[in-house]
């Protein structure tokens, strides 16, 4: 799709998937605005690229998000595409993980999506055009031991985006809910910095570019669910039809 001159909004652009989305969209001629709390990361994302505008912003603050989107539309033009990539991924057993961390994960991973959707989507729907992309995960499809807090946040992302799509499917806006396996980004490193389940550790991470290419392919085909990488679509079907087999395998791998 031709993105020349179109405005693209990316949350979590200070690293990983968000950073690559910013850079690829800018190379395709888009005017990119990205939000993140990571100012050094934002500076690295935009280094040498006048097409990327950065703004330090906490996606859990709806008033700030709403004001920033209005400012962007006034200065850059109508937002045509949104990538909701802001997320954190500390892992651990549910009864051992810090309470505030679990709530913070839900506030960023799910609450940030709610905020950006309510700030940016109404105008897109009124215009009858645009792309809204949510980054869920296979963790938003298949629960795993020691990832319960992260699972809950990504299950919420999947459900919210699916209903959002159905409520607006005649609007002219295209929706995509992306459910990748482990991806080689700093987000995955957060898991390793806490506790990484053997179930996830046994999956070789794919590259961020593969995820973004899968999104473009799905949007072109009019597909809502995006399953990058080998085996992800099969995993979705297994979870739906044979959940006990998945749990049996998880318990075997984790040893409890």
Give a brief outline of the structure:
Helices cover 52% and strands 13% of the residues. It is built from 10 helices and 7 strands.
How many domains is the backbone divided into? Answer: 1
* Beta strand count: 7
Indicate the percent of residues in helices.
Answer: 40-55%
- Radius of gyration equals 18 Å
Largest sheet report: 7 strands, parallel
CATH superfamily: NAD(P)-binding Rossmann-like Domain
According to CATH, what is the topology? Rossmann fold
Shape: globular
Report the portion of residues in β strands: 5-15%
CATH architecture: 3-Layer(aba) Sandwich
Low-confidence stretches: none
| Arrangement of strands in the largest sheet | 3-2-1-4-5-6-7
What this model shows, in words?
By secondary structure, the protein is of the alpha/beta class. It has one domain: NAD(P)-binding Rossmann-like Domain (Rossmann fold). The protein is 52% helix and 13% strand. It is built from ten helices and seven strands. The protein has helices spanning 16-27, 39-46, 62-75, 99-127, 148-167, 186-194, 198-201, 208-221, 232-241, 243-254; strands spanning 7-11, 31-36, 52-56, 79-84, 131-135, 174-178, 225-226. A seven-stranded parallel sheet has the order 3-2-1-4-5-6-7, sandwiched between helices. Helix 5 (148-167) links the parallel strand 5 (131-135) and strand 6 (174-178). Helix 1 (16-27) crosses helix 8, helix 4 runs parallel beside helix 5 and helix 9 crosses helix 10. The model has no long low-confidence stretch (mean pLDDT 97).
């Amino acid at each position: 799709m031709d993105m020349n001159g179109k405005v693209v909004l990316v949350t979590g652009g200070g690293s990983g998937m968000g950073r690559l989305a910013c850079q690829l969209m800018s190379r395709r001629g888009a005017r990119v605005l990205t939000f993140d709390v990571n100012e050094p990361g934002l500076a690295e994302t935009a280094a040498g690229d006048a097409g990327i505008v950065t703004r330090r912003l906490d996606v859990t603050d709806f008033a700030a998000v709403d004001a920033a989107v209005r400012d962007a539309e006034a200065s850059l033009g109508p937002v045509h595409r949104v990538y909701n990539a802001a997320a954190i991924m500390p892992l651990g057993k549910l009864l051992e993980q810090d309470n505030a961390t679990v709530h913070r994960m839900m506030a960023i991973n799910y609450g940030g999506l709610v905020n950006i959707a309510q700030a940016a989507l109404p105008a897109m729907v009124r215009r009858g055009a645009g792309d809204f992309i949510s980054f869920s995960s296979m963790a938003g499809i298949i629960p795993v031991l020691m990832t319960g807090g992260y699972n809950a946040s990504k299950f919420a992302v999947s459900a919210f985006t699916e209903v959002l799509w159905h409520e607006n499917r005649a609007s002219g806006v295209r929706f995509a809910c992306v459910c990748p396996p482990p991806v080689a980004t700093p987000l995955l490193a957060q898991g390793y910095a806490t506790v990484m389940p053997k179930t996830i550790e046994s999956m070789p991470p794919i590259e961020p570019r593969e995820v973004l290419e899968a999104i473009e392919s799905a949007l072109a085909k009019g597909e809502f669910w995006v399953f990058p990488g080998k085996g992800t679509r099969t995993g979705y079907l297994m979870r739906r039809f044979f959940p006990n087999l998945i749990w049996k395998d998880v318990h075997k791998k984790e040893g409890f």
